[in-house]
């Protein structure tokens, strides 16, 4: 039973980490797009 609980915690932590990575990627892409749009003007 304790092993199942630890697995759930690890999955939850991995899920939260994946969300943070996704947000970081979106932020970087957004910054690049803004830079490209300003550079064209």
From TrEMBL:
<dbReference type="InterPro" id="IPR012552">
    <property type="entry name" value="DVL"/>
</dbReference>
<comment type="similarity">
    <text>Belongs to the DVL/RTFL small polypeptides family.</text>
</comment>
<keyword id="KW-0472">Membrane</keyword>
<dbReference type="Pfam" id="PF08137">
    <property type="entry name" value="DVL"/>
</dbReference>
<keyword id="KW-0217">Developmental protein</keyword>
<keyword id="KW-1003">Cell membrane</keyword>
<dbReference type="GO" id="GO:0048367">
    <property type="term" value="P:shoot system development"/>
</dbReference>
<keyword id="KW-1133">Transmembrane helix</keyword>
<keyword id="KW-0812">Transmembrane</keyword>
<dbReference type="GO" id="GO:0008285">
    <property type="term" value="P:negative regulation of cell population proliferation"/>
</dbReference>
<dbReference type="InterPro" id="IPR051525">
    <property type="entry name" value="DVL_RTFL_regulatory"/>
</dbReference>
<protein>
    <submittedName>
        <fullName>Os01g0525700 protein</fullName>
    </submittedName>
</protein>
<dbReference type="GO" id="GO:0005886">
    <property type="term" value="C:plasma membrane"/>
</dbReference>
């Amino acid at each position: 039973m304790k092993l199942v609980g630890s697995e759930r915690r690890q999955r939850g932590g991995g899920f939260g980490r994946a969300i943070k990575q996704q947000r970081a990627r979106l932020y970087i892409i957004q910054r690049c797009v803004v830079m490209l749009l300003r550079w064209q003007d």
